[in-house]
Amino acid sequence: MNLLKNKWALIILGILVLGSIGLLFRKQLGPMFGGYTKSTRGYYYRFVEGHELEKVKGPGYHIIFQYILLGPNGDTIENKMVPSVQLQRDYPVEAKNEMEDLMQIASPGSLVEILVPTDTLRQRVNSNMKVVAMEAGKTAKFLVKIISVMDDNQFAAYENKRKIERYKKEFDEMDAYAAANKGEWVLDSATNIKYIVRNKTEIARLKFADRVEFNCEVYTLAGDLIVNSGMEGKKYKTLIGSNSFSLEGLETALTFLADNEEGLFLVTSDYGFKEKGYNNIVKPYAPLLIKIKDIKKIVE
């Protein structure tokens, strides 16, 4: 009877000890119970979908991927996992952080979850204010989708296909805008710019190296205002071709006009904000509408 009592006492004591250890180290042990693996860098990761590569690849490969960064409370800090976004980078032959470690081992089609200390992210990504604002001493989470791993030839074909698809989408958007805003739109085949010139004169067109001043407005095709020189209280001035503006389309559009003419220009993202977009107003690879008026050539 005493032996039985001692046996149960030992079992109860063991349970209490294990429970105490679990409470003490719950932060460290928690990820392990969620099916996570600890990397050599000390972070935890797990494959939600897919599996590890049998062998790490060498140079000459490229990765197409997406990701979401979630804060300690599950709030979205950055979302690059939307249909319109496919990020590209060279395969990391030498991994320098937890994301590159993952990219070395994840097979195409994998979805991987990575737990990263907020302190690490705040030090490394100090240009993102949402990251900087995350609470110290907590854990953030990356969800990374590896869409594809390609060699140089496959990647060249992929980029070409994506470019054709992108241009078609932008041209369709520009055509739809022109159809809805009827006028004598002209397509310049050299630049793929669609434009209308108002108050047209017989004066020679402006050209590169001309110095001019003008007023302008820039919109998304949905009507969101991005630039308005009048609201800034000044006319813009530039030496055409000097790349004075972040929008290449402004200087290019000027070469379609002459003094005192006005123009409407539908430009592709090559002349706008390209793949980066602008301040959550302009999406990546979005065409723009540029309005130019009050042009005056400055004669020195």
End-to-end CA span: 112 Å
Tell me the series of helices and strands, N- to C-terminal.
HHEEEEEHEHHEHEEEEHEHEE
**Helical segment count:** 8
Structural class, by secondary structure, is alpha+beta
Q: How much of the sequence is in beta strands? A: 25-35%
Count of strand segments: 14
Residue share in helix? 25-40%
**Rg to the nearest angstrom?**
29 Å
Unreliable stretches covering 5 or more consecutive residues: 21-33
Largest sheet: 7 strands, antiparallel
Shape: elongated
The averaged pLDDT comes out at: 88
Task: Characterise the protein shown here.
By secondary structure, this protein is α+β, with helices and mostly antiparallel strands. It contains eight helices and 14 strands. It has helices at residues 2-24, 26-33, 98-105, 118-124, 129-132, 152-180, 229-232, 248-254, and strands at residues 37-38, 44-49, 61-70, 76-80, 87-90, 111-117, 139-151, 186-188, 193-198, 211-220, 225-228, 236-239, 262-267, 288-297. The strands form two sheets. Strands 1, 2, 3, 4, 5, 6 and 7 form a seven-stranded antiparallel β-sheet that branches. Strands 8, 9, 10, 11, 12, 13 and 14 form a seven-stranded antiparallel β-sheet that branches. The radius of gyration is 29 Å and the shape is elongated. The N and C termini lie far apart (112 Å). The model is unreliable at 21-33 (pLDDT under 50).
